[in-house]
Design brief:
The chain has one domain. It is built from two helices and four strands. Bound molecules: zinc ion (2 copies).
Length: about 80
């Protein structure tokens, strides 16, 4: 995880960075988190790394988790025999 941040900072050493999610500026290193576009944490290609706010980042991953859970439940419901519904 920290590796992506290092790669990102090496390529983009100057603040402010622009948050990928809200488009606002990220003013300090303390507020900088690096998001992996393809969600693969060890894929530290610079094209896969985006500056984000910790709050925006958290919200995004929480929403993603909800969507995945919903999809999982929908699929599970489809696979249940009709009598079980
Ligand atoms: Zn943001
Ligand atoms: Zn992320």
């Amino acid at each position: 995880m920290a590796k992506g941040r290092e790669v990102f900072l090496a390529a983009n050493p100057d603040w402010p960075w622009t948050c990928f999610f809200c488009g606002e500026e990220v003013w300090s290193r303390e507020d900088l988190q690096v998001h992996h576009m393809d969600e693969i944490d060890f894929h530290n290609d610079i094209g896969n790394l985006f500056a984000v706010h910790p709050g925006c980042h958290k919200k995004w991953h929480a929403a993603l988790k909800r969507i995945r859970l919903k999809a999982f439940r929908a699929r599970a419901a489809l696979e249940l025999p009709e009598t079980a519904l």
